[in-house]
Amino acid sequence: MLYKNSLGISHEIIKKIVKEGDIVVDATAGNGNDTLFLACLVGNAGVVYSFDIQEVAILNTKKRLEEAKVYDRVKLIHDGHENVDKYINKNVKAVMFNLGYLPKGDHGKATKGKTTIKSIEKCLELLQVDGVITIVIYYGGDSGFEEKDEIFSYIKNIDSKKYAVLVHEFVNQMNCPPIAVCIEKIC
Amino acid sequence: MLYKNSLGISHEIIKKIVKEGDIVVDATAGNGNDTLFLACLVGNAGVVYSFDIQEVAILNTKKRLEEAKVYDRVKLIHDGHENVDKYINKNVKAVMFNLGYLPKGDHGKATKGKTTIKSIEKCLELLQVDGVITIVIYYGGDSGFEEKDEIFSYIKNIDSKKYAVLVHEFVNQMNCPPIAVCIEKIC
What we know:
homodimer; 7 strands; Rossmann fold
């Protein structure tokens, strides 16, 4: 299959953009999938900044990185991604957001529109030209609808002279399939 | 830039899918851009069926193909794409729709939702597994809004067990940027 799902689309975009030695961000460490993915792409010379507000997410991610022997190139930060500018003051090549709650975790601790948007805003400033932000938006069941609507209102108004905002949506699937957003800095 | 526009997205999808020797369809010959693109991809052993209801489109396309020395692998058909099943009775790898009116042509002769949907329906049946239909939808100015709404109503209801329907939309651009749709036959 060409496109399995929105997570696959976000990975495909990141693979096209991120090269060895790049500085990148995982805005939502979760269980470490994307942090590990990014750590492999940037190689020994690169850096991955990886954020999560939940200690269990930081610990799970650390474990996965150590097992894969790539922990040396990752800065794990136990703080909300809306504080990204406290930790990074140089341009980054890519930022990945994988929203929602920690798999098998507390639904009440899901990402929230207000802080997600604050983080995206700051990441837009950190992004280098030709760099990208990918956002996988989960909604359905008991959560995510409000965050989705807030993010859509926000991304529709991002300056089109500086950024291209492309939304990928599987429109014929049942049960609110995740949506993949790609924001590219064009100048 | 990663993605310039919807036409670029449709071409990127087609390039991933179409190989030498394939049988493919350009549902809207227009001035021959996509027919020429497909003719180059399928090579000597492949076949491109290319439809248009306007004679001027057929003539312009024929001229471009002859100049590029690839006319031998193209069947130009001066008929509406809703009659695709009259001309093709075998599986195809890809179908490209580039909707709207002929560039610099008569806006009144734009594609229409009813016939476009009839054609998509028939092409879904002709498609081989892992094959794709790409549709670039133009709307804005004096036309295209009704066709866009009709197509969206239709594609949302395509059987998700058999087909994945992915919509690509640039959400922060002014003036109704074209939308790229990719329908993949998954089984």
